[in-house]
Amino acid sequence: MTTTVNRRPPGDVGEPSVGDLVKQAAEQLSDLVRGEMRLAQAELTRKGRQAGIGGGLFGGAGVVAHAGFLTLVAAGVAALALVLPVWASALIVAGALFLAAGVMAALGRKRTREAAPLMPEEAISGVRTDVERIKERARR
Prior knowledge:
Blueprint: H1 18-80, H2 86-115, H3 121-139
Helix pairs in contact: 1-2
């Protein structure tokens, strides 16, 4: 026994068959998805390029700011050298910098420990709640 699927009756040339329409819809959907993917890729490439340039400029600003900070430190040493020997003024400025670095490190360590563990606990909890609700509704 043979069956004919998606065949038009003889003499019916005006309307496409359901199979033709489904095939055409699938092709159009595929073309649409490919086009959207190409558009997204082009957009991400453009945005990535801009982000890279911005990151490079931030890095350059950091280098220049670091040089400015070092110059400021040298000026502090020179100012203290007016009333103390140069070695003593350099030692005082270095001690102040190490003290500031220690305070910053302690604060950074505290913040890092507060952030641990690095898992999205709220999101995981939400997903577990959703799964439980779905299971409850499925049981009913």
